[in-house]
Amino acid sequence: MPATPVRGTQSLVEQMGWVLAHPLLTALEVAWRWLFGAPLLLVCWLQAQKILAAVPPESAGLTTINWQNPWIAALKLAEAWETYRPHVASVVVWLAPVAAVAWVFISAIGRNLVLKRMEPKLPFRPVSMIVLQAAWLALLALTGWVWWRFIGWAASTHINATGEPDLIGYTMWAVFLSLGFFTLWALISWVVAIAPMLVLLEDSSPATALVQSLKLGRAFTGKLVEINLVMGIVKLMLIVLAMVFSAVLIPFSDEVGLGALHTEWLIVSLFYFIASDYFQVVRLKGFIEFWHIYRGHSAG
Does the model's pTM come out above 0.70? Predict the structure, then answer.
């Protein structure tokens, strides 16, 4: 047990300063994420161009949408989606598995390098990290699938119901479910997030690490949940800030032109991704520090 109790939020301030003083950690996090993300975005862009060439927006009715009438616009978008869905599905059926495998391999090696840079004595165990990153991705996919099913329920009970569609009710449910599942992910994802660190810090197998992540004790678990919740709130704040900054030049679009808008959106996007990766490294550092407090003595 630690001699002096410490709150997770208080320690995060210290970890933020430490990570700022070690910028290479954030650079490594950004590098491995974009090693995966940049090629994926390029492939998605090329496939989107092929789909739009096969089914031009004019033939799908996208150019005739009246955006001043949200309900009619939503119906037109739904009709357009039915036109594009077979083409999108034919791409997703092969791109999604390839992207998942690529992410698991790249993220496992990248995360191992970041943690090893953070704690030089840690071993390099890519195979174990691959197994645990696959577990993380599987849990994320399951959470996303359940969220999508609930959103479908909200749509079927409010949009497709007989009579006038209940748009307000649907919007309320969509916001509530999205925030709820976002919070749920923050509450449960620490289990698969701490397991890779246990593999490296305690030299255990992936299965043992997953089991041990559920047996960390109330004090340690409470700190991990607290950090995850705080990081979830930070990510929401970053999203809101990105949306606000992205809209700064929209009222002046006639004066500045589309080029300035695109430049603004690019800068804001880069800011969001780099800031998000920075706070991810802060979370990793916080997890490791609490491991040293609550389990380091027993592991040593």
Answer: yes
Backbone angles phi, psi at 87, to 5 degrees: -70, -40
C-alpha closest to that of 7 among 203, 215, 224, 171: 224
Q: Quote the tokens at residue 165.
A: 């569609």
Please enumerate in sequence order all residues whose Cβ is within 8 A of that of 170, keeping only pairs 6 or more positions apart, or say none.
154, 155, 158, 159
Report yes or no: 170 and 197 within 8 Å, Cβ to Cβ: no
Structure-model confidence comparison of residues 158 and 163, the more confident one: 158
Q: Find the angle CA(79)-CA(84)-CA(87) to the nearest 5 degrees.
A: 155
Q: What are the Cα distances from residue 254, in Å, to 251, 258, 261?
A: 8, 8, 10
The three-state (H, E, C) secondary structure of 170-214, written as one string: HHHHHHHHHHHHHHHHHHHCHHHHHHHHHHHHCCCCHHHHHHHHC
Q: Which residue has the tokens 């609550």?
A: 294
Q: What is the pLDDT of residues 139-153, one digit of tens each?
A: 999 999 999 999 988
Instruction: Find out whether 276 and 241 touch, Cβ atoms under 8 Å.
Output: no
Amino acid, res. 91: V
Identify the CA nearest to 118 among candidates 271, 299, 292, 235. Answer: 292
Cα angle for residues 71, 50, 41 (degrees, 5° grid): 80
Q: Where are the beta strands (DSSP E) in 206-297?
A: none
